[in-house]
Design a protein that fits this description.
The protein has a single domain, classed as K homology (KH) domain (GMP Synthetase, Chain A, domain 3), CATH 3.30.300. Helices cover 45% and strands 30% of the residues. The protein has a three-stranded mixed sheet. Strand 1 and strand 2 form a beta hairpin.
């Protein structure tokens, strides 16, 4: 049951990021940038969720200014809409967009 719940959160969060935060993401990290939610898991001892995400970037000009705080801000906003108001811990990585 927990696995189904986490899969639903992952799908809703990915959809929300793709549709609602796309403009902000592209302003921060470049025109073809996008985020992929790799995994969401629940940590019972901390009563929070761990979100493993990958940011794909095509413009590294302002990358050091906006990463990781800009990405975390966008994910937290999306989580407030689709999540269940529990705390989140964002584990992020980045890669270059394939041309």
């Amino acid at each position: 049951m927990v696995m189904i719940y986490q899969m639903k959160h992952k799908r809703f969060l990915q959809t929300f990021l793709d549709r609602q935060t796309k403009r902000h993401l592209q302003e921060l990290f470049g025109e073809k940038s996008y985020v992929v939610i790799n995994n969401i898991s629940h940590v019972h001892s901390k009563d929070s969720y761990v979100l493993n995400v990958t940011l794909y970037v095509n413009n590294f000009d302002n990358f050091d200014v906006a990463y990781p705080h800009g990405l975390e801000m966008l994910i937290e906003r999306a989580w407030n809409v689709v999540g269940d108001k529990k705390k989140i811990i964002v584990q992020s990585s980045f890669d270059s967009v394939q041309q």
